[in-house]
Amino acid sequence: MTQANEKDAKPAVVQTVSLYEKHKKVYPRSVTGLFANWRWGMVWFTQLIFYGTCWLEWNGRQAVLFHVVERKFYLFGLVLWPQDVLYLAILLIISAYALFLVTAIGGRLFCGYVCPQTVYTEILLWIETKIEGERPARMKLDKGPRDARWWRLKATKHALWILVAVWTGFSFVGYFTPIRELVESAKTLSFGPWEWFWIFFYAGFLYMQAGFLREQVCKYMCPYARFQGVMFDPDTLIISYDPERGEMRGARKKGVDHKAKGLGDCVDCSLCVQVCPTGIDIRDGLQMECIACAACIDVCDQVMDKVGYPRGLIRYSTEAALEKHYTAKDIAAHLMRPRTLIYGGILIAIILATAWSMATRVPLKVDIIRDRSVLSREADDGRIENLYTMHISNTGETAHRFSLSVGGLDGIEIAGERIVEVPASSLKSIDVTVRADAQSGNRGSNQIFFEVVAMNHEKIAKREKATFLLP
């Protein structure tokens, strides 16, 4: 480089680029319409199930209960034990495939309508709107002075938020501790340490995430938002803005031929941005932050009605439909494609196999443990005795009397009581003494079998193997 060029060279400009966007509070505007009604319908549906199911009774007990103390899961007439953890794994697999199928067909419909974050944000936002007012009033309140009115409105809002959160945490714990026992404990505030912890842990997260973080949970914390893109394809239903019809945007007077002026149907009112719970502009195309709540569709349809244009400038559609101008019939035909058929086929197969397994499930479990402190001993009559502990789990809703027998060696039998009564949904442990002639088998370990059969129902039976030691 010459001396002249060195003099003309400008110093390098150093710029600092932040990898984190400064948070701007989103003030969603209330909206009415078809999809808003569906969304509130799902709020009522999910919360009636959540708050109400824990109060249902079945055969004198709570119908749905993960009883931590008893280590049993009651699901109406079904009683699952720790040994049935396989069903929990299957339930998680079914949930995962159902989510994959819904996502492949309809994008983030789960997020927009039944996700707990969406549901409780809707509830707390409704409380906020009723107390502080609509979007402009809330924005004005937050920018205004912190006078007596500000403190009164904020205190009322947060008190109601905390009430909803604590009641939700209480109901959550009611699925692990019988809800009526929990109510009695609440009268004297005599909860156990873990009950105190989970009530306020659950309530605290609801209060924080649905009250303060809101869209930040969907944008930064939820893993579903991150991996949903790999399950999308051009035929997945998404909230779509039609740029061919909407551009160029701009205001216009009613009755004016906007197309003659080079304008599209979008009047650039920005209402679609104002109603969005995550604060995005759907006109910028598909975005990770979109939760498919369809609030923008409702408000845009209302604007189209007012200006006299056809509805559907923003609508549920697919990338392929916008590009190739599919009709509604074409869109529906493309929903059934290899990906959705595979997801649906696997899901149906797992559900049917699980239903068959549970329908043919024998409500009896038997565990045999040989007493290792005494390998074998000689009885008074000269025969050889082995001692066992038998655990009989009656997993049904009816008490049964079980007959016990043993086989596998000539002349082997149970010494003592051979009838055991086990109450419904109970576990009973008994000591069993088994005798056999010293010459009935080989020296050392011999395989034997215990038979446990319900006396009033022969199909409720179990056959368990054990070992019998001969000196």
Helix content: 40-55%
Q: Supply the helix-strand structural class.
A: alpha+beta
Distance between the termini: 101 Å
Rounded radius of gyration (Å): 33 Å
What this model shows, in words?
With 471 residues, the protein is of the alpha+beta class. The protein is built from 17 helices and 16 strands. Strands 8, 9, 10, 12 and 14 form a five-stranded antiparallel β-sheet that branches. The longest helix has 26 residues, at 148-173. The termini are far apart.
Describe this protein with a few key phrases.
3 domains; alpha+beta; 44% helix; 5-stranded antiparallel beta sheet; Immunoglobulin-like; 16 strands; 4-stranded antiparallel beta sheet
Give the arrangement of secondary structure elements.
Layout (H helix, E strand, L loop, with lengths): L2 H6 L25 H20 L3 E2 L2 E2 L1 E4 L4 E4 L2 E3 L4 H22 L2 H5 L2 H17 L2 H9 L4 H26 L5 H10 L4 H21 L1 H7 L1 H5 L10 E4 L1 H4 L24 H4 L20 H13 L6 E4 L1 H6 L3 H8 L2 H22 L4 E7 L6 E2 L5 E11 L5 E8 L5 E3 L3 E4 L3 E11 L7 E11 L2 E14 L1
Antiparallel strand pairs: 1-2, 3-4, 4-5, 6-7, 8-10, 9-10, 10-14, 11-13, 11-15, 12-14, 15-16
Summarize this structure briefly:
By secondary structure, the protein is an alpha+beta fold. It has 17 helices and 16 strands. α5 crosses α9 (193-213) and α7 (148-173) packs across α9 (193-213).
